[in-house]
Specification:
Length: about 140
């Protein structure tokens, strides 16, 4: 059962970005399903590691497209990306400390990131990429 399904509110209209965002949704759904099945601790390591990989390739993709488009708020947008990376590092630390509440914390963080970052923050750069004919 999917916790969150892809919705056009998340769409940037840029296939590579949208595909990467869909992958993040799949991680959240995997974490949510694991919590329901009381396997959160087993899955949290995979999800955190994948969030780390995701941040590296996704943020690089997004930021390079914003640079190409001359997006004026790129520096501000990078602050959000840096905060995500910092949070993932915090999760890695907590995982190594055997934090019992980590599974729920990761799920809540990803849910908030999707609902705030994808549907609001990322939407701000879409016009700049469209104006630069980046699709």
């Amino acid at each position: 059962m999917a916790f969150i399904v892809w919705d056009e509110v998340y769409s940037t209209g840029i296939q590579s970005i949208d595909d990467q965002h869909k992958h993040l949704i799949s991680l959240l759904n995997r974490m949510f399903e694991a919590l329901l099945q009381k396997r959160g601790k087993e899955e949290v390591s995979y999800v955190i590691e994948e969030m780390n990989r995701y941040a590296e390739y996704h943020f690089q993709t997004e930021e390079s497209l914003m640079e190409r488009a001359g997006y004026s708020d790129l520096a501000e947008h990078r602050i959000f990306h840096d905060a995500f990376i910092s949070k993932v590092n915090d999760f890695l630390f907590k995982y190594n400390q055997n934090d019992e509440a980590l599974s729920a914390e990761v799920t809540i963080f990803l849910t908030n990131w999707l609902n705030e970052h994808l549907s609001t923050i990322d939407q701000k750069y879409v016009p700049a990429l469209q104006n630069a004919n980046i699709s």
